[in-house]
């Protein structure tokens, strides 16, 4: 029985040491785990911030490029309009050309053409025929 009592004592002492280590180590482990979780959250926040900044920069560069393209397109259209206007005898000729283009594209069966005063000629007789 002496040997059995000695083994029980060693086992009890080992259990006590293990319990003591657990009581001391568990709070330390929780602090360590919380610190790692905080560092991970900080790293995620910084990464999200960097992604947001890069997306904003990309949108800004895209907007600048689109604006530059629109300016170039507008300059080209203005030059083309100036060439057409000058070749057609000025603004009046160009407006007459645009009017003819609009009439060609129209599928209307009845077209009112403005006179010199800019007013369309009305058809008063046509109303009498409908009666």
Helix-strand string: HHH
Give start-end ranges of low-pLDDT stretches.
Answer: none
Strand percentage, roughly? Answer: under 5%
The proportion of residues forming helix, as a percent range, comes to over 70%
Count of DSSP H/I helices: 3
Indicate the radius of gyration in whole angstroms: 44 Å
Shape: rod-shaped
Give the total of beta strands: 0
Going by helix content, strand content and strand pairing, the class is: mainly alpha
Mean pLDDT: 85
Task: Give the end-to-end Cα distance, rounded to a whole number of Å.
Answer: 134 Å
Strand count, sense and closure of the main sheet? Answer: none
Protein architecture, described:
The chain has helices spanning 2-87, 91-105, 124-130. Helix 1 packs across helix 2 (91-105). The model has no long low-confidence stretch (mean pLDDT 85). It contains 3 helices and no strands. Helix content is 82%, strand content 0%. The N and C termini lie far apart (134 Å). It is an all-alpha fold and 131 residues long.
């Amino acid at each position: 029985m002496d040997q059995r009592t000695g083994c029980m004592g060693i086992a009890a002492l080992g259990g006590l040491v293990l319990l003591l280590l657990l009581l001391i180590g568990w709070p330390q482990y929780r602090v360590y785990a919380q610190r790692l979780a905080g560092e991970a959250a900080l790293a995620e926040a910084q990464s999200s911030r960097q992604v947001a900044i890069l997306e904003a920069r990309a949108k800004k560069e895209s907007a600048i490029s689109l604006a530059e393209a629109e300016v170039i397109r507008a300059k080209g259209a203005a030059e083309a309009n100036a060439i057409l206007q000058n070749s057609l005898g000025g603004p009046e000729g160009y407006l007459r050309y645009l009017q003819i283009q609009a009439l060609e594209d129209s599928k209307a069966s009845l077209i009112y053409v403005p006179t010199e005063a800019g007013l369309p000629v009305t058809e008063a007789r046509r109303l009498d025929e409908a009666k």
